[in-house]
Amino acid sequence: MSDRRRPRKTITLDHAAGVVEKRDHALAPGRVAKQAARLRHLATLGLPATAPLDKGEGWARYPLVEGPTLHEARPLTPEQTSALARLLDAAQAADVYIGDMHSKNLIWADNAWIIVDCGAVRRWNRARGERQRARFRGVLGS
Ligand SMILES: Nc1ncnc2c1ncn2[C@@H]1O[C@H](COP(=O)(O)OP(=O)(O)OP(=O)(O)O)[C@@H](O)[C@H]1O
Ligand SMILES: [Mg+2]
């Protein structure tokens, strides 16, 4: 199944409680648990990712990050642009390539980009680092 057709998880934002609940789609079990483990791993490395507050069979709850996604925030302010460059540098310094780090998976809050979703986390290498930067070329400049 292509990425576009892949069933998504169900996401419920509770602004009053400041919590986001993510639940597996019936046709794609295990995605939420995988995502939770990846985000926790990134947070453990000191990267700005939302670690789950708690989780169970097919669900996880996260702190709700209030702010625009990078997709919504464009065109970025100079401050947002340099924060994005710093985030890419921090991933490299932590020796990780963060899969699927795109403009709807980053939220601007407290003057930083927070990672709220990602794909597989791999070891950083030059080719992957370049691919990561290429995703944001239009935003960061070449
Ligand atoms: N912790 C959070 N705080 C605020 N908003 C969030 C949070 N997590 C997710 N969101 C919002 O919900 C959107 C979708 O969430 P997420 O990226 O986890 O799922 P998805 O991309 O639909 O799932 P997948 O790519 O795994 O199929 C995000 O783009 C973001 O706008
Ligand atoms: Mg996403």
Secondary structure topology:
Elements: E1 10-14, E2 19-23, H1 31-44, E3 54-56, E4 59-63, H2 70-73, H3 78-93, E5 96-98, E6 106-109, E7 112-115, E8 121-123, H4 126-135, H5 137-140
The structure holds adenosine-5'-triphosphate and magnesium ion (MG).
Residues 8-9, 11, 20, 22, 31, 35, 50, 62, 64-65, 69, 104-105, 107, 116-117 line the site of adenosine-5'-triphosphate.
Structural overview:
It contains 5 helices and 8 strands. With 142 residues, the protein is of the alpha+beta class. A hairpin with a 2-residue loop joins strand 6 and strand 7 (112-115). The longest helix has 16 residues, at 78-93. The chain is globular. It starts with 9 loop residues before the first strand and ends with a helix. The mean pLDDT is 94. Bound molecules: adenosine-5'-triphosphate (ATP) and magnesium ion.
Keywords:
globular, 142 residues, alpha+beta, binds magnesium ion, binds adenosine-5'-triphosphate
Structural class: alpha+beta
Low-confidence stretches: none
Residue share in helix: 25-40%
- At the fold tier of CATH, the topology name is Transferase(Phosphotransferase), domain 1
Query: Roughly how many Å apart are the termini?
Result: 33 Å
Largest sheet: 4 strands, antiparallel
The portion of residues forming beta strands comes to 15-25%
**Radius of gyration computed on alpha carbons:** 15 Å
**CATH C-level category:** Mainly Alpha
Which small-molecule species are bound to the chains here?
adenosine-5'-triphosphate, magnesium ion
Determine the CATH superfamily: Transferase(Phosphotransferase) domain 1
Give a count of the beta strands, DSSP E runs of length 2 or more: 8
Shape: globular
Q: How many structural domains in the coordinates?
A: 1
